[in-house]
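Ticket #201: bound-state structure for zinc ion.
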Amino acid sequence: MDIEQIYKDADALLEGHFLLASGNHSNRYLQSAKVLEYPQKASLLTDALAKMIRENGIEVDTVCAPALGGVVAGYELARSLGVRSIFVEKKEGGMELRRGFTVSPGEKIIICEDIITTGGSALKAAEAIEALGAKVVAFASLANRGFCQRVGGINLPKPECKLPESIPLFALEDFTFEMYTPDTCPMCKEGSTAVKPGSKG
Ligand code: ZN
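RESOLUTION: The complex was predicted; output attached.
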């Protein structure tokens, strides 16, 4: 399965001159939601992710996603694994379960994202779930931006990674892009202006 090609075909892997949330510039950007636009294709991706998780002997009762970005990926992964799907939502300083969702003490949970950058949201979701007595057995994501180390991946974890090394991260692909500060960006030097991909509409 050529994951990068699937992202390109879905216009989820953009090329251009982008202003990232960190303030850095990059010539590539992942518009993660686009790869989930067609449910039949999305389930092929989560089937592959579920296979990796099963082959590594991870037992799971429930998939939990941090809203909003992780919800669709988490729902499809739960379908692929044949388990239930819940999500946590942002609150001041963290995340919480709402809408009548509950977890049981000892329940085995996978935290699922569409994309893991530093893993900040996934970590907050894990903290919310563990505060309720359930156990986070793995993190899962369709795409890994290469700051955290995934099972089977070759990139070592970078200092920016917020996920604990004691819990495995499963992802389909590492997407490591060139990044520049605005004053060293070669595209800026050529006179073009970085755009915020999230607000392109
Ligand atoms: Zn630039």
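RESOLUTION NOTES: The longest helix spans residues 39-55.
TICKET STATUS: resolved
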